[in-house]
Amino acid sequence: MHHQRRDGRYGGKPSIAETLIETLSETLGRGAVRPPHERPAGSGGGRAHLALGLAALVALAAAGAVFLRLDRGRPTAAERVGVVELARGPLGVVPAGDRPAGAALLTLAAGEPIHAGAVLDTGRPGAGGRAALRLAGGQSLRLDQGSRVRLASSASVVLEGGAVYVDSGGGAPIEVRTALGVVRDVGTRFEVRLLPGAGGGVLRVRVRDGEVVLERDGETHPAAAGEELAVAADGRVRRAASPVYGPRWDWVLDAAPAPDVAGRRLAVFLDWLEREGGWTVRFADDAAAARAANTILHGDLRDLTPVQASSMVLGSAGLAYRLEAGDFIVERIDERAARR
Q1: Rounded to 5°, angle at Cα 176 from 204 and 112
Q2: pTM, 2 dp
Q3: Which tens digit of pLDDT belongs to each residue from 196-220?
Q4: Domain ranges in the chain?
Q5: What's the CATH code, domain 80-249?
Q6: What is the dotted CATH code of the domain comprising 258-339?
């Protein structure tokens, strides 16, 4: 609460109107009102100057008050809540605020900021794009094709259609709001998807790591890594097992920003693959592990897909990989050739 000072100001700072009044009053005191012996001859006296000065004073004070009201009513700029890290294909945005119905979407590219209230749209399923955002709280947010998301803040996302993937990565807590329930993370990686269907469709939540809590109609439903929750419009919640790797997660890897590997060991890239692909990285033998530990990488992976990057990075060290269930097995190329 502000406390009024004895001079009538609040918070210790004069208003714009008060500043104008003080400034003009000082001017009037110095020049407009002079003792009779100092007035220029034929000036008509000090009353005319004083009257004009006071009229100007009132006008300026009123103008200052109007300016102050306008300034206080001016909307502040929307809070910056994140930045685009990657955009594969079209990424449309409707900025916060009113826009005419049917107005064309603006497009965003990597590096561009996103502000609170913006609605992001990745186009039609199968023909749209995918995107990765870095939110102000440090979380990574991915958007699949055919998704529409409103960023209420850096800690609250409203999913209107399609799917989002959240990697909190030790960042601030985040919630994903939908018409069928609210999903809150507990330090985790998870996907929230709205599936079309009769009566309002289905909300599906799949947890890759950590834990989430689904809130609906005053009830909470926790889910841990390897679990899936499905919520129908009638409120029924179904729980099932869900693998943390495999084709249903491929879109997340496709939308993952490539790591900066220049001057770093190959192990850094493998750690990234393990996190983004959901696999467990294993080595076929000690020789393959030694190569990975001793190889220093060079170059830029930003323009490559994860599959292309994997082949190029491992190939530069004389290594290859194969997938077996949930394992990403790294082996020497010469050993693979000999086995065949």
Answers
A1: 120
A2: 0.74
A3: 887 779 999 999 999 999 999 999 9
A4: 16-73, 80-249, 258-339
A5: 2.60.120.1440
A6: 3.55.50.30
